[in-house]
Known about the structure:
Order of helices and strands: HHEEEEHEHEHEEHEEE
Distance between the termini: 33 Å
Number of helices: 6
Number of domains: 1
Strand order of the largest sheet: 7-6-5-8-9-10-11
CATH class: Alpha Beta
Structural class: alpha/beta
CATH superfamily: Vaccinia Virus protein VP39
Radius of gyration: 16 Å
Strand content: 25-35%
Amino acid sequence: MADLIDYLIKEGFLKTKAIIEAFRIVRRKDFLPAQSQKVIGAGGPEELKDLAELDSPLSIGYGQTISQPLVVAFMLELLQPKLGEKILDIGSGSGWTSALMAQIVGEKGRVVAVEIIPELMEFGRKNISRYNFIKKGIVKIVCGDGSIGFAGEAPFDKILASASAKDLPLAWKRQLKVGGRIVASIKDSIWVFEKKPDGRFKEKEYPGFVFVPLVS
């Protein structure tokens, strides 16, 4: 994946040292099904393990995808996860974004990964376990409705949602710390929400993206 990472750096999608390092350590191919499935937008079935270098979303089954690396890079750069932070990952799917953030927040940090589809939750757990993030207590993966967040571990420094919601759930707003940040896909845009001391949110929209819908 080195060539793809170098491309994302060259094009300005990867900028932050800790995020670049996480991309180099946490390999996308470890989060892909071994069996043959179709590439989104492509013609025939191919081995997904051999397609990890493609800058394209790939099917992981159950109507869900592992996101395009460019989009993951873009969203993580907007989120700016930091060492020691507690982050909620909504719709964790294959577990790749959860593992990337776990690498960044380190052993004093925490990533709570929420996935509503039981089979994908187990798939994600198996993938994340390759990096010992669950054993070390950095990642907690749960099966549940991401649209209601995860109150048991709130408040969070950051919240990431990679599946498209119709609007920003109130639960996410309530479970975010003051000064915290939400990066979420809403309809066909990526939005950044920053929580101000008075409880209101500063918002910024980045249009022109396509995501699978948030299952709730």
